[in-house]
Amino acid sequence: MVVVDEDIDVFDIKDVEYAIATRVQADRDIFIVKGARGSSLDPSSVDGTSAKVGIDATKSLDNLDSYERVNE
């Protein structure tokens, strides 16, 4: 799952990729949850559990002004 701000169109993959490329620091914005319930159709799961990943691609509240998008 990727979480983005309201200025990102979640239905436009390029917009979501832009948010990931410009707003994510891997060591603090990517989360892994081990032992989460997975799909029974997932052949990589063990006993119905799997790992899940979350990406926080939102603007940092410390410097919101730095995230002004440049139009091409």
Structure overview:
Strands 1-3-2 form a three-stranded mixed sheet. With 72 residues, the chain is an alpha+beta fold.
Quick rundown:
Helices cover 21% and strands 28% of the residues. The protein has 72 residues and is of the alpha+beta class. The longest helix has 11 residues, at 13-23.
Can you tell me the overall shape? elongated
Structural class: alpha+beta
Poorly predicted segments: none
**SS field, number of helical segments:** 2
CA distance, first residue to last residue = 28 Å
Query: Which strand order does the major sheet show?
Result: 1-3-2
Percent of residues in helices comes to 10-25%
**Overall pLDDT confidence:** 92
Largest sheet: 3 strands, mixed
E-strand count: 3
Beta-sheet strand percentage? 25-35%
Radius of gyration: 15 Å
Q: Return the string of H and E elements.
A: EHHEE
Which secondary structure elements does this structure contain, and how are they paired or packed?
Layout: E1 2-4, H1 13-23, H2 26-29, E2 30-37, E3 49-57
Parallel strand pairs: 1-3
Antiparallel strand pairs: 2-3
Question: Which structural traits does this protein have?
Answer:
3-stranded mixed beta sheet, elongated, alpha+beta, 28% strand
